[in-house]
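Section 5: illustrative case.
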């Protein structure tokens, strides 16, 4: 996969409950979707053709949906990095539907472990960073997996496009 690294981008951001707006706020979700589409278009203009999602609720699946919307026009690919089989078993029904739809429409799916284990999400994040040269993220300083992934990406020399850096104004804040 290293030969594809220069044209591969990954997403990292907060799960739905950690976003600074409610996941059922249609205006805020629409604003984020527009920002994601703009970031994906810019990345495609820069030569990126492969986009990895980590398949968690919130930012990951919203990013996947944006790639799928733009796929016909841009000719990009969606790759899914699933940390463990049955990841979506505990998702609320709406997110489970998004998860399954994304898997069905993805160009490639990587399931990294048969079973859940402590550290499987960090392993998924490392897998995506090691396969990418660009990260599109939503990171505003909160601790957790997104922070760890952004820090890993910085240490690894990846370009970082942060949608929380004043590029995204959410009306419900």
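Designed sequence:
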């Amino acid at each position: 996969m290293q030969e594809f690294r220069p044209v591969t981008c990954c997403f990292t951001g907060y799960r739905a409950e950690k976003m600074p707006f409610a996941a059922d706020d249609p205006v805020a979700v629409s604003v984020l979707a527009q920002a994601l589409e703009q970031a994906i278009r810019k990345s495609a203009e820069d030569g990126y053709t492969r986009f990895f999602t980590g398949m968690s609720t919130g930012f990951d699946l919203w990013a996947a949906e944006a790639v799928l919307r733009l796929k016909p026009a841009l000719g990009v690919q969606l790759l899914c990095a699933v940390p463990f089989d049955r990841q979506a078993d505990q998702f609320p029904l709406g997110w489970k539907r998004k998860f399954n739809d994304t898997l069905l429409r993805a160009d490639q799916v990587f399931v990294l472990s048969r079973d859940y284990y402590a550290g499987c999400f960090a392993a998924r994040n490392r897998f995506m960073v090691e396969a990418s040269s660009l990260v599109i993220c939503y990171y505003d300083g909160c601790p957790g997996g997104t922070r760890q992934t952004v820090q890993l990406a910085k240490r690894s020399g990846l370009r970082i496009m942060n949608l929380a850096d004043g590029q995204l104004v959410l009306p419900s804040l």
